[in-house]
Amino acid sequence: DVVDASAVHFACGAWGLISAALFSRQSHVQEAYGQSQYYGAFFGGGGELLACAVVGILSIIGWVVAIMAPFFLLLKQLNMLRSPPEHEEVGLDVSKHGGEAYPDYMARPPRENSHRSYHPPSGDSGTTPKSIAVQPATDEVRPVSEGETGD
């Protein structure tokens, strides 16, 4: 999960349901909903609200899996789930968006030449370009011509 959507939406959403079931005061529930039959387990409300939260979380998980699994399986079958390896190697910020998103946090040394290239490991199937070059002026990704070193 590249953008931590699972951590933000799933984990925090689940925690929101569970924490409300644990920490809701009877007076606050009465104020918000006009009834105070169910409230937080830590304040003597029993486990009904917690059980309801767990059922809600499991229902959401089931719904998301049922809706999204076919979509992701179809994308995988169509080879549309991942970016090409050469774009991953250069970085999607450069190959798709035209610039480095975090140039100060790069794992590679800063650019010193007019351009750099990526050469895939030997045994490449031949279905992708043998190398790509990134031009510093535009960060354009293009196939390297025969005989061009790219370095």
How large is the radius of gyration? 26 Å
The ordered H/E elements are HHHHHEEE
User: What's the rounded overall pLDDT mean?
Assistant: 78
Poorly predicted residue ranges: 113-120, 124-135
| Beta strands, count | 3
Beta-strand level of the residues, as a percent range? Answer: 5-15%
Helix tally equals 5
Could you estimate the helical fraction of the residues in percent? 40-55%
Shape: elongated
Could you describe the 3D structure shown?
The protein is mainly α. Helices cover 46% and strands 6% of the residues. The chain has five helices and three strands, in the order αααααβββ. The protein has a three-stranded antiparallel beta sheet with strand order 1-2-3. Strand 2 (132-134) and strand 3 form a beta hairpin. Helix 1 packs antiparallel against helix 3 (48-77). The chain starts with a helix and ends in an 8-residue tail after the last strand. Mean pLDDT is 78; it is low at 113-120 and 124-135.
